[in-house]
Amino acid sequence: MGIANYFYNSTLRKYVALFGTYFNQMKIQRADNNGTVIQDMIVPISYAPFQKILARVTQDPKFLKGVAINLPRMSFEMTNMSYDPDRKVAPTRKVRKTGVDVEGGGRRFVYAGVPYNLDFSLYIMAKYNEDAVKILEQILPFFNPEFTSTVRLIDGLEPMDIPLILNDTTFEDLYEGDFEERRSVLYTLNFTMKGWFFGPERDKAVIKFVDIRYAPNTLANTTFEEFYSVQPGMTANNEPTTDRALSIDYSLIEFDDNWDYAPEIANTAPSV
Fold first, then answer.
1. Strands 73-83 and 45-47
2. What is the tally of structural domains in the chain?
3. Chunked in runs of 10, what are the mean pLDDT values of the chain (272 residues)?
4. Is 155 helix (H, G, I), strand (E, B) or coil?
5. Under a CB-based contact definition with an 8 Å cutoff, are residues 81 and 49 in contact?
6. Rounded to an integer, what distance in angstroms lies between the CA atom of residue 71 and that of residue 68?
7. Looking at residue 133, what is its pLDDT?
8. Coil vs helix vs strand at 209
9. Measured between alpha carbons, how far is residue 202 from residues 93, 110, 199 in Å?
10. Residues 94, 164: one domain?
11. What's the Cα-to-Cα distance from 205 to each of 66, 108, 169, 202, rounded to whole Å?
């Protein structure tokens, strides 16, 4: 038996796409000894471990095949997911969805998200260290140590701030063998994205009548001495009112109408 009916918010897919978007369309320029730009290129990026990219490079170091991978190039992958107890919120907290009509005037909501840390690694691969550094210097100034984006994860929910934290950067020169072997420079940047995962959406009827009863003590069979009730009040002309005698029946008042609170205190239980 499943814990819930089928639902899919595609949240993880959005986190992966968000991470890749940060580093998409990055450029480097190459200049001659006079400082004149002779080459302007966009650095391609893909979702793949760096070993896969380098394997394709080393298998065809002289680009003799019709299709080859050119350097510089970037790739990234998600390496780990872990629960973040420091950001835990009450599991019964409800987050209302907007722009969704529910039959009977109810409201649609989801329970508060579960916090997870998503670890990503970004790989910068280049034949020349200068090319790799040009890419690296376009990234580091924006992480101090985090960069926050406001993202709408689920339709109907308010956009959320999603921080991306740069944890560390490592460098590796993959030059091996004799001088005829191809050289590759690798920079690895490790990040942590602080995300949220939400459960299925649910429907809840709007509360239009509240009945409170007061007793002098908490003993069993104690007689109630005072009754307090509150309901929405609106006249037939769609004007808000606090006088129940002037209000239409509360069941006819919708959430988005122009209403006011109509309380009543009595010594006998109100008839609903």
1. parallel
2. 2
3. 76 95 91 85 87 61 52 92 94 79 70 95 91 94 94 89 96 66 82 95 79 79 80 90 88 83 77 58
4. coil
5. no
6. 10
7. 94
8. coil
9. 13, 6, 9
10. yes
11. 63, 9, 51, 10
Both 147 and 90 in one domain: the answer is yes
pLDDT at 178: 53
149 lies in the same domain as 225:
no
In whole angstroms, how far apart are CA 174 and each of 46, 218, 253?
Answer: 20, 77, 71
Determine how many CB atoms are found less than 10 A away from the CB of residue 28.
18
Asked whether residue 47 is assigned to any structural domain, the reply reads: yes
Residues 181 and 223 in one domain: no
- Residue 244's pLDDT is 87
The helix (run of H) or strand (run of E) holding residue 75 is: strand 73-83
Output the pLDDT for position 20: 95
Query: CA angle at residue 36 from 35 to 42, to 5 degrees?
Result: 105
pTM of the model: 0.72
Both tokens assigned to 101: 């009509």
| Structure-token match 């080459």, residue found | 39
Tokens of 49: 């471990």
Residue 114, token pair as written in the block? 């579960």
